[in-house]
Design brief:
The complex is a heterodimer of chains A (395) and B (506). Chain A contains 17 helices and no strands. With 395 residues, chain A is an all-alpha fold. Chain A is globular. The chains are: A mainly alpha (395), B alpha/beta (506). Chain A: It comes from Paracoccus methylarcula.
């Protein structure tokens, strides 16, 4: 590869040291998975558990996508757990009690979610009330409203077509029972697309002389990701195939990666978080963007509420309790900055997986909820400390 | 009278800039000593050296205070010796009471428990001394600027001040408040307090000063004794501005075309204090290929004018007409102003102009993202090409456009800001202090860029505190003071003296 010669003389070790913040997250996820795989005696990566991992964490990941945009824009949303619970309750009332068609009820739920986000965003963006306060109020209001809506009771069960939103699987078109061919095909296709994108990006960066990742590391990094993807789809294929919710998560993640990295909209949100005054004086409508990040957050919180209710097959007054903290933690573990302006969708998703794997692994081990909270808290602190430490070293 | 303070051959260097070059200052015990000079001449730097903001060792030269060599490691050291500085921006905590502010960091307390009775009693005594009739318990933010100034002086007195330094004390005061303050200074002088006053207002200097030191370009030009009778405003003005202006500005063929941009009857009120009018009945125009300067001191309303025009980014109740090539234009939001062909290079590039934590590339396209996007999708190749193009055109010194702008020098950062605005392809550029804080070489490059713009038929409005720069670069100069234009001069008729006279002799 003549490309290796163009890299400006950095060894693999030196390169990793320089980019430790980007690689750290990936290493952390792998290390945590390896750790739990060993201590749970192989339970963590069994097909049924991998499937469970996705089902259990889907709503956190969905909301982390929206939360990343809110945090990049320099705000925070504490209300998402309550909103998620409220929307679940609303869906239950409409579908179970009022017998509304599932499609209609879901559409109403998503619209209500956006409206909730719009109201909160309005106060944050146009009245400059700190988002911490506005969404703290929202957190209390919607916690109360879901209690009121459910009158303190659980409502369920949901009809099957609603449940399949969360617990359904993509049917195998090839008729073979196991392994599930659709799952394998999707896995292989995803790997090919990822590798193609990575190569294209690398060659483009080469052209501008800004690529300095050693070739060996590039190969190794992509091989790890490709192997992980194939491994997961292989396992899934031996259980029940691709969960619907995994597919929607992947599609959503791709959409948000595209929005944040390639569109003017995404760029403007980063600019607002990076320096709101400079962005405003560059002709960017900062208020409207802040408003939109909250509308988007409301929409995703509503979707998460539907997914969560469908998985539990019931709406309970406690649904979504303290979930906002997991979502926010995922985003910060994923490397976003509290000050706004930086953070990546992929980081937030990996952050959510780190939280998810720890939850799952510790539950398998039978660690009490008390210790689980302590450990999660320490991991959050360690992740952010690692970030700040490396940033100080850079500067 | 003996000298209370002798500053000998003070030299202070910042990276790339010699802010003070062998400055000497001698202040006699019991006098009021005025320091005059243009913005950026080095007055504030000198006072920061004196008060220990720049600690001993960070400058060359010697300070002799009260007969001893002084080496202050920080503000606390100088305050312990009775040197108190009152800055132009008051350092009071708005939500604390007068008494709390006066004794902040110096509380009347035993074992950490505040003795409020004593605090209030002493505050009343100090307020009586400075002639401020307010209760010690009321909050500072309810006071006008003039009264806040008196609180600052009371605070200085509470620390047994021997040498009081006031940086532009009357800049924000009304005429009556200014007179009261000057009277107070004379009264304190009677009580043996020595003062140094930095001021632009020569009539005030003449009224209170016993001697005047003029500083220019970081060097002492003259020290004039008022008692000798040779203190005239003309003499001070001449010393403040008289410098060789040859060949500091690149030549330009001057040919102004039609009027491109015009503002009429512009009025702006302060965003928080609804009764304060910041810009008053102001009208101006600029022609194609013309460079128009706005001269004025800090606080005269230049930046407020520019920002109120540029998408109403400052002020409220803005009224007046703006037109582009004779057609009225809507400038009610920044994006509309940009669409109309306006660009505004802010005075403060770090907080208002750039996203420091982002790359040169991202900053370059910030004001015209649509220019590198197709239907909302950014084309990163074009983004890089645009950034590369401006890197070459503007000669931005950097290994690549993927560097974060925080790693660039001031001059190169300023070029990135200019690049950002050039990429919006404006007709009218408003440049607010375009060369502040950058070295001479980079200044010359910026002047060349301005000349290129004017040669390309762009209209340029240039706000600057450096009068030689305006004289060297502009075709026409508006002189601004207290929110209005007090004069309009053709460059060939203008001189620093004529501009300064318009400002200070109002």
């Amino acid at each position: 590869m003549e490309q290796t010669e163009r890299a400006p003389g950095l060894g693999i070790g030196a390169y990793i040291a320089k980019h430790i913040r980007e690689y750290g997250l990936l290493f952390a996820l792998i290390a945590i998975m390896a750790f739990f795989q060993i201590v749970t005696g192989g339970t963590l990566l069994r097909p049924v558990n991998i499937t469970n991992l996705f089902l259990q964490n889907s709503y956190i990941i969905i909301m982390a996508l929206g939360m990343l945009l809110v945090i990049v824009g320099g705000n925070i949303d504490l209300s998402v757990g309550s909103v998620m619970g409220f929307i679940g309750a609303l869906a239950a009332v409409m579908i179970v009690s009022w017998k509304l068609p599932v499609g209609v009820a879901m559409a109403i739920c998503l619209i209500v979610g956006m409206l909730i986000g719009a109201v909160q965003g309005y106060f944050v963006a146009y009245w400059k009330i700190p988002s911490f306060i506005v969404t703290l109020a929202g957190m209390l209001v919607f916690r109360g409203l879901s209690l009121w809506l459910l009158a303190g009771q659980s409502i369920g069960p949901f009809p099957g077509n609603f449940q399949s939103l969360s617990t359904g699987f993509i049917p195998d078109l090839f008729g073979a029972d196991k392994p599930n061919m659709v799952a394998l095909a999707v896995g292989v296709a995803a790997v090919l697309v990822l590798v193609w994108l990575a190569l294209r990006n690398r060659s483009r960066n080469m052209r501008y002389g800004i690529e300095d990742e050693p070739w060996g590391l590039f190969v190794a990094r992509n091989a790890v990701v490709a192997f992980a993807l194939l491994f997961v789809t292989w396992k899934l294929a031996w259980f029940r195939g691709l969960p619907n919710v995994l597919l929607s998560m992947v599609i959503l993640t791709v959409i948000y990666v595209f929005i944040t990295e390639r569109t003017t909209l995404g760029r403007r949100i980063y600019a607002v978080g990076g320096n709101a005054k400079a962005a405003k004086l560059s002709g960017i409508r900062t208020e409207r963007l802040t408003f939109l990040t909250f509308v988007n957050m409301g929409l995703l919180a509503a979707l998460a509420g539907l997914v969560f209710a469908a998985r539990l097959n019931t709406a309970t007054p406690k649904a979504g309790f303290a979930v906002e903290l997991d979502v926010i933690a995922a985003v910060f573990i994923g490397g976003a900055s509290m000050a706004g302006g930086s953070g990546k969708i992929v980081g937030a998703v990996v952050g959510a997986f780190i939280m998810g794997v720890m939850n799952n692994g510790m539950s398998i081990l039978g660690i009490g909820i008390d210790y689980q909270q302590v450990i999660k808290g320490l991991v959050l602190l360690a992740a952010v400390f690692f970030d700040v430490y490396n940033k100080n070293k850079e500067g | 009278m003996t000298a209370l303070l002798e500053m000998r051959n003070i030299t202070k260097t910042f990276p790339g800039v010699k802010a003070l070059d062998n400055v000497s200052l001698s202040v006699r015990e019991g006098e009021i000593h005025a320091i005059c000079g243009e913005n950026g001449a080095g007055k504030s730097t000198l006072m920061k050296v004196l008060s220990g903001v720049y600690p001993a060792g960070s400058y060359e030269g010697e300070i002799v205070y009260d007969g001893q060599t002084a080496e202050f490691g920080g503000i606390r050291d100088s305050e312990d010796r009775g040197i108190i500085i009152i800055h132009q921006e008051l350092a009071l905590v708005p939500l604390l009471s007068i008494a709390e502010n006066i004794f902040l960091g110096n509380e009347r307390a035993s074992n950490g428990v505040v003795n409020w009775r004593e605090t209030f009693r002493q505050t009343e005594g100090l307020l009586a001394k400075v002639g401020l009739r307010e209760a010690p318990g009321i909050k500072v933010d309810g006071l006008g600027v003039g009264k806040q100034q008196l609180v600052e002086i009371a605070k200085a007195l509470s620390k047994d001040v021997r040498l009081l330094i006031l940086d532009e004390p009357t800049a924000a005061l009304s005429e009556a408040d200014s007179q009261a303050l000057l009277d107070l200074l004379l009264e304190l002088k009677g009580q043996g307090v020595t003062s140094i006053i930095i001021s632009h207002k020569l009539n005030e200097v003449r009224r209170v000063a016993d001697s005047v030191t003029v500083i220019r370009d970081g060097a002492t030009i003259s020290t004039i004794d008022a008692r000798g009778g040779d203190l005239t405003e003309d003499r001070i003005v001449r010393d403040m501005v008289g410098r060789d202006m040859a060949h500091r500005y690149p030549d330009r063929e001057r040919r102004a075309g039609d009027v491109v941009f015009e503002v009429k009857d512009w009025n702006v009120w302060h965003p928080e204090h609804a009764d304060r009018q910041v810009i008053r009945d102001l009208s101006m125009n600029v022609r194609a290929g013309e460079v128009v300067g706005i001269a004025g001191l800090m606080g005269s309303g230049r930046t407020e004018l520019a920002m109120s025009i540029f998408g109403r980014s400052y002020g409220r109740n803005i009224s007046g007409q703006a037109s582009m090539r004779g057609q009225p234009v809507d400038l009610s939001a920044v994006d509309k102003a940009i669409a109309a062909g306006l660009a505004y290079v802010t005075e403060d590039r770090k907080t208002l102009g750039l996203i420091l934590d982002e790359t040169i590339r991202r900053n370059t396209i910030l004001a015209n993202l649509d220019g590198v996007a197709n239907r909302g999708v950014v084309d990163e190749n074009r983004e890089t090409e645009v950034a590369e193009k401006y890197r070459k055109v503007m000669n931005i010194r950097t290994p690549s456009v993927f560097q974060k702008v925080m790693n660039l020098s001031g001059g190169n950062q300023q070029k990135v800001v200019l690049a950002k605005w050039l990429f919006t392809e404006p007709e009218v550029l408003i440049l607010d202090e375009p060369t502040r804080g950058i070295d001479v070489g980079a200044k010359y490059e910026i002047y060349n860029i301005i000349n290129d713009l004017s040669a390309a038929g762009k209209a340029v409005i240039m706000i600057s505190s450096e009068m030689p720069e305006l004289l060297g670069m502009c075709d026409r100069i508006y002189v601004m003071n207290e929110g209005s234009f007090v004069g309009e001069l053709q460059a060939e008729d203008a001189s620093q003296e004529s501009i300064m006279s318009l400002i200070v002799r109002e």
